[in-house]
Amino acid sequence: MDNNHATLLNVHLIDAAEERTDNLPNLRLSPDVDRKSLPHIQAAQSRLENLWAVGTDYCEETIRRARAENRLLHLDIDMTGECKLKCFYCDRTPDRYSDVPDRTELSTQERKDIILQARRLGATTVEFPGAGEPMIDPGFWEIVEYIHSLGMTTVLFTSGYHLDAAAADRLYELGASVFLKYNNIDTAVQDRMVGVRGYGDKARSAMGLLLERGFNKSIPTRLAIDVVVTPKYHDLDDVADLFRWCRDNNVHSYIMTLIPEGMADHKSLLLEKERANDLIEMMRKIDEEEYGLVYSPSRPMGGGYRCRQVNCGLFVNLFGEVYDCNGLSRLVGHLRQDTLESVWNSAYAEKIRTPDQNGFCLVRERQWQGRDLSAMNRKVEEYERWRAKHGDDAVVERAKQAVGIDHVELTRKGAMVKTPTTQPV
Ligand SMILES: C[S@@+](CC[C@H](N)C(=O)[O-])C[C@H]1O[C@@H](n2cnc3c(N)ncnc32)[C@H](O)[C@@H]1O
Ligand code: SF4
Q: What stretch or stretches form a coiled coil here (predicted)?
């Protein structure tokens, strides 16, 4: 791992009631602090990935080495599909509500077994992107403790709705990195985005607990905010404030446009390409002028973040289906049919991870190109083209059968069988 967790930060804080970021817990840098000399900003001068959260801070060299050794570094895996919130933009909704017969969720034991398989393939990180809220999965702590016992890093995406001081302590002790949903400075906007009154205050309090516990005190940090930028709820000034707050406080800024899946599989919710470009250009300018960080950004992520998941990871959903990423991109296997090792080493999976991803996001770019297939067809579109040239990949063919790719569809509300006469999958 190329992490350096040792450096402690010593930031100068002032109370700034007049700041728009006052709605965030009270960390705001004094105006006389030279932002360019903050330890995490200095560390980012030599390696931009030092600003990304531990467990996700893969640089090109790490990826190159992993590729040379055929190592899987990063396992994404879903926990429960349950969630108490109702985000209007949630990409994971179709996974949660399933009318498809025999689509059975993985058990805690099966998840632990998959994690062990990933460890044997070289994985150092297990990420929970969340089909729902991972923290309310009955097996959540058992699994996080298991990951820790294997010497791996947990990366948790959470709304913070169920995060109290005891949970923050436990996550800290178990070495987890936390991506907290923090879509807006304004708690009322947060409430509207998740459809639940009082959520914004809970998220704010969760942020306070994580900061207090010191999740942002290492380099790279162990704390990130996940911010989705939607046409309805964001102006660029809001995002700029959130972004500066992240940079000042060594919180990884995971700021991006929506993935067009699930509830967000709808043009009206998505930033058009030009606005997405404006968003990342705004962050680039702040970084260059105020923090002395120079880089070329890559749509759709701001702040110089470049997703490399496809080169080094796999995603396993609630039912054991395997994809290249949790944007539910391309189907590569099914763990009720094959082992993780067989999926990782299949010809098609190998083909997918060979070109450098370096920030490219297939699901979003496809949408911006106007190629509008059904949600299920998108997952095998590229495979079918590859298959026409190279013939069947037995692992993907078994996965297609198990998923029922020809008679199941993902809708904005859930997965359903396309026709009532279809045989159960
Ligand atoms: C799917 S949620 C699951 C974990 C947890 N329930 C939460 O909301 O943080 C993980 C993250 O994905 C974000 N997200 C949800 N729908 C999205 C979409 N269509 N595009 C991009 N991110 C999305 C959420 O805001 C959240 O920060
Ligand atoms: S984004 Fe997270 S909190 Fe919101 S509905 Fe989806 S799973 Fe629940």
A: none
